[in-house]
Amino acid sequence: MRRDHTIKTASAALALLALTGLARAAPPAPATDDLSIATASGDHHFTVEVMRTRDQLERGLMYRRQMAPDRGMLFDFGSSQPVSMWMKNTYLPLDMVFIAADGRVVSVKRNAEPMSEAIIPSGGDVLGVLEVNAGTAARIGIKPGDRVADPMFKP
Q1: Is residue 19 part of a domain?
Q2: What is this structure's pTM?
């Protein structure tokens, strides 16, 4: 009888918290976009998760163990600025593509070391950073000056 009472009390308390807005809701799932990169080898398409909230920007790809070859993560910083990234708690080796507000690739960091706390600077003002599996930038030939098409960038 006591156990049953405890469960009912806990359920009632959770319901009350939810109704009053005091319960912490699960964070919303990130939006996804279809993004393309025009390189000398042609147009290359990716489905990307778009990180916009502070929590999303801070977490990124931390703790993930795999990512499909045609997937990526796009960080939207909301305004053009120099940014720095790191690989803390990130198990996947990644390429980072730093992108200006007009969609122009500013710089590329290839094969960022997993779990490293080394700072990786953008090398200029950027609106976003695209993270893809390591080796992707070399395979499709991403270099500064290439163009990224996504609703976030305004050519």
Answers
A1: no
A2: 0.80
